[in-house]
Amino acid sequence: MTELSHDSTLRELATAQGVLRYHEAGDGPPLLLLHGSGPGVTGWRNYRHNLSTFAEHFRCLVLEFPGFGVSDPADGHPMATAAGAVTRFLDGLGLDRVDVIGNSMGGIVGTQFALAHPGRVRRLVTIGGIGRNVFTPGPGEGIKLLTEFTDAPSREGLVRWLHSMVYDPALVTEELVEERWAQATDPATLASARMMYGSEAFAARTAAAAASDQAPYWAMLHRLRAKTLLTWGRDDRVSPVDMAMLPMRTIPDAELHVFPDCGHWVMIEQKAAWESAVLAFLTREDAALTRQDAA
Questions:
Q1: Could you tell me which residue ranges the AB hydrolase-1 domain spans (predicted)?
Q2: What is the mean pLDDT of the chain?
């Protein structure tokens, strides 16, 4: 399948809380792709190079979360509004059940959605991000650099953060820096980012979590019913690979695939190997169905 363009795949969905923008390509079972966070991120930039591969098998839907400069903004913290955006999006398209791929923040949002709506997610693929540090200190290097950039944006700070995302520094091109810088410094997008990663917001969120009686999402992973594939870069400096230990052990039906020479952006840095592993997982027949056919 030929490479798909930004404009040819861009769609809009009007909802009661503003317009959700997304990219759509392919036919078949619905596959929802959720992007991560960070300066200048969009769903298109996360998955543009993977879209043609998955569109050969699925109806791919790359949702742009509110608060990142593409979909209409929503009131509230971007992480808090993201789950609602997923529900509005799927309801608006009339989709009862989907497969989900989530990168970093998108993996957390996809996991939370699957926990809250167990019948609506068939299979879940995460790319780093979920769980919590077991051996390594937290937050990771990439999160600290993200906070530094958010507090005081500079081109040099953006480059430092981008380098923390990858194993191969050659991936941090001038083109990547320029497109990220333009969106990351948009006033509305920057204000939204400061709600997530500014040092004051980070400290307030940490204090609120310590005082809360509500269990964090990672403590509820034993309730996850979707078959889950955890994908991780061995050299991830944002969410170190030891974070995978908790979800790997507590999610009832989970698999873990770790990719060598790879940072946080597994779908970019190990594109072919990652796509192969994810496609095998998403298209594999359920064991119960296989046994029934054999009988």
A1: 31-270
A2: 93
